[in-house]
Request: fold
Amino acid sequence: MLDEAEIERGLDNVHAWINFAIAAGVPESIMWEWLFHTKPEGPIIVTDILSKVDDLVKSGQLTVQQIFDIATESVSQDSAYEAGDPSMVDHVREYLENTTRLWKNGY
Reply:
């Protein structure tokens, strides 16, 4: 099991990717669907997403690796959203791949 510092480092990397994706133009509602596979109940903001990710990881319901796996799968399969702006989604995918690789390598 990972220690608290390792979990925090992982969450920092997840947060960085979420913030990058939203800054790149992914709406919070799409990010919510990508990570949690549900439609948000009402309006959400980025802190709602970050808090839910934190709660899921810190409670042991999901690991940082599982969050990255879910994100990778969702971003890869969201052809409907990608049709709107394929280059933006490509940048979000690339950033996710780089962030995941850095996290796995201890950064």
In short: Residues 53 and 67 are 8 Å apart (CA to CA). Helices lie at 4-24, 28-36, 46-58, 64-77, 79-82, 86-104.
